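User: I've been going back and forth on whether these two constructs are worth ordering. Before I decide, could you fold them both?

Assistant: Sure. I'll take them in the order you sent them. The first construct and its structure tokens:
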Amino acid sequence: SSILRKTLSDTILVLINQVLLFLLIVTICGILYKKAHRGTVLRNETDDDSETPEDMEDEIPVVICAAAGRMGAAMAAINSIYSNTEANILFYVVGLRNTLSRIRKWIEHSKLREINFKIVEFNPMVLKGKIRPDSARPELLQPLNFVRFYLPLLIHQHEKVIYLDDDVIVQGDIQELYDTTLALGHAAAFSDDCDLPSSQDIHRLVGLQNTYMGYLDYRKKTIKDLGISPSTCSFNPGVIVANMTEWKHQRITKQLEKWMQKNVEENLYSSSLGGGVATSPMLIVFHGKYSTINPLWHIRHLGWNPDTRYSEHFLQEAKLLHWNGRHKPWDFPSVHNDLWESWFVPDPAGIFKLHHPNS
């Protein structure tokens, strides 16, 4: 009987071990599933992710937002980039949940169907309590305006990333912009506002801000305590070349969120004239800690004044054109809209239309 009891206890021990092993396997599978599922929630609607490390090394990731009311802008920008390079571009097209299917339809039912892309959902809940309502430029409060703050949360497998505003056209080879050198310890490169074209052109852009004074309210103690001279040259974050490793190491996103929340509490930014809400936190966080982009890769202010035009020769030399300001090239009045329209991709759904007298 003792032998029988020993055999029985051995059998029970084996069964317990098998059950424990089974539970361990189920737990591991559950963890792996959750990780994979979290990834699909973060990058909802994305294409197949099965790429080899070699493929990813050769890819140039370009992040661009496609907002509901101006989706045609993103599509024109994408078309201009894709048409002017032999490089392997991976477009991260970022939208809010209710626009994702429309973004996919526009790409897949137009000449853009050949591009390599992922559609990324941006959850505006991350901005809750961080944005101060501002009636002066309500379009600057759109959630997608802050996507540039959260690049590492959207892009995981790339070391270097290009972010572009949607109201740009690229005339050069995007590989050149991607090859911008970032100094050691710098998380990003921008265009200095002191690197703008000739002073003759600038003087005609009345009200243009190119110093920190135009973005930060120097009457506030919090701003004064930064010790940044109000005459310091600002930069424009509509074109960014970013190093994701440095960005994460320096906790740039957390720093930007801190300065968003401080603005909600103390109203620190001069948003009446400057780019305001998205630019100001970046000016503080990146002060003295950014590399510069070749000025020809960010010729901007084309949307500043419908009565101000650049010379045709100058525009031909430009590698990237940016219609920042109120006067967008798909609307009227605007300038140099012929350059933008040459890259326009008609909306297959017929929703987005050009608002020009001759259209």
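The second construct, handled the same way:
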Amino acid sequence: MERGNETLVREFTFLGFSSLAGLQRLLFIAFLPLYLFTLGTNAIIISTIVLDRALHTPMYFFLAVLSCSETCYTFVIVPKMLVDLLAQKKTISFLGCAIQMFTFLFLGCSHSFLLAAMGYDRYVAICNPLRYTELMGHRVCVGLVAVACACGFTIAQIITSLVFHLPFRSSNQLHHYFCDISPVLKVASRHSRLSQLVIFTIGVFVLVIPLLLILVSYVRIISAILKIPSSTSRYKAFSTCASHLIVVTVHYGCASFIYLRPKSSYSSSQDTLISVSYTILTPLFNPMIYSLKNKDFKSALRRVMGQASYPFN
């Protein structure tokens, strides 16, 4: 379809790894086992939490949801990226790009709010241990996850609609390996300052508000931990929060660098590198940080494996 001398864009071409043309097969060999390992560890975490009753607590409920979210999150981006590393034509349809952006934003935004819910869970567990079961009942946990998903869905719908209602008539070359906001906006024929401002404001809402809630929770948590007389008890209390703090730092650090920068400092090569870290490396390390170093989880995993080995005992 044409308008004047310009042709409307029907598909986009990914150029994310074009500068590494000679290394793309090596990248495929490196990324594939990492992706399969991530899928495997998340599957182990989810199945262990579901099968072992000792892990039917709010903390592990949130962890199972987080693992499921990360599995879906990587599934939206990584398989297509792996196929493109071996393909000559690295394209995605206009509709496919919109669907990928919506799904990626939905899961990513939900992830941010879910981390805030997990921070609140740690706050209640340490600052109100006697009321923990009452304050973090199953309905409350499910409600927090539902709110996180509803916020993620609404934000993804708004941003995707704003981006893909723009005219795309010039270039269709995305300097990225998936349909992220900045690379797609860059190839739009024109976009208003209002749409940029709305997207930036939503980004602040998604990243800054949950982070502030987490910081407030941890100020109170640290204050409560310092009042514990026993050094052993202090260490145990802090160790239950350390993994969450590490994941929060990595998630919000990478996301803030990409989505809260001024447009003038946009760099496609930097964004590609940072995006690899949070689409491949962060989901790889998160299961190990949260669960595979956790004594309670490892004990539960042994019990589940024992039951699987001796089903009739």
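Notes on the second construct follow. The radius of gyration is 22 Å. The chain has one domain: 11-306.
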